Predict the structure.
Amino acid sequence: MQNTPSLFDPIQVGPWNLSNRVVMAPLTRNRAPGQIPTSLMATYYGQRAHPVTGAGLIVSEGTPVCAEGYGYSDTPGIHEPGQIEAWKPVTAVVRAQGGHIVCQLWHVGRISHVELQPGGQAPVAPSAVRANAKCYLIKNENGQRVGGFVDCSEPRALTLAEIAGVVQSFAQGARNAITAGFDGIEIHGANGYLLDQFLREESNRRADAYGGSIANRCRLMVEVVRACCEAISADRVGLRLSPVMEGNGAVCDPQAQAIHEHLVRELAPLGLAYLHLIEGQTGGARDHKPFDYAALRAAYRDAGGRAAWMVNNGYDRALADQALAEGADLVAFGKGFIANPDLTRRLRDGGPFNEADRSTFYGGGEAARGYTDYHALS
């Protein structure tokens, strides 16, 4: 009779021997002026990489794979040589502590603004359907950098040739991430961004091979995952999904269960490192829409999928223990890691937990306040 694994037990995920099952979820912080990682980012990730007090696995903030992939100012990319070089000190400090970090590859699609797009062009999307959503811009006003949320711009539909280019951008992003010293990648297929936009009928009104049927709407996601697996090896690839999340203009699809069960069956033979499931509404109710996550995992396992199963959204120690008892392998924690670089230790000890300064969640340039100035327990 096997014992239920603890949140603090080691686990093998792909080629990585993780020291615990706590994952630092991706957290957009808008702290990379000029889209270039900074030395302060190395400090930030390094503080959270200790194998005993920190995360067994860190997923980086969303990192655009091409110039069209940005929807928020000061997010670090992974498509230019200078960005790749600037990530190397970040990954080096994580490795020096014995930690592991993967790069979350990102394309926001229609969740963008013309000021963030090359040449001021319209953002790209599955279809020319504007998102009822905001993106984050940082502008210079009177010599000071001022940040704020603005309405997303009207997008234009991707051509078939451009869709092929998106696939290649993700594959090249995967190769660039390995060059930059990451242990692997996580493909952002969630939260109403480009790949997720293709899954949902509200945002995908195409009549070609990438729209209409469930198989067609899943096609781009599957092509991107396969291309990344071919680029760097499948056991270094993870995928994030949010089946019923509503936000960033996304509307819960009436076929969400069928769509995601089809998708995971397609992915099962690939040998991925992990699947990262956001349960319910990101940062909100876990049950805001009906969805059977156990059935989704069963569909994946029945199709031969053996990737680690990572759960996310509103987890505390008790809920994490329950999830592990019910078959999850990893538990991701997001905002808790902002104010608690040693969150794993605090979870083990039952606290105390620092409160985060929400006014510093986004932006701040290279200032330490609200970023690297939270103290660990002595």
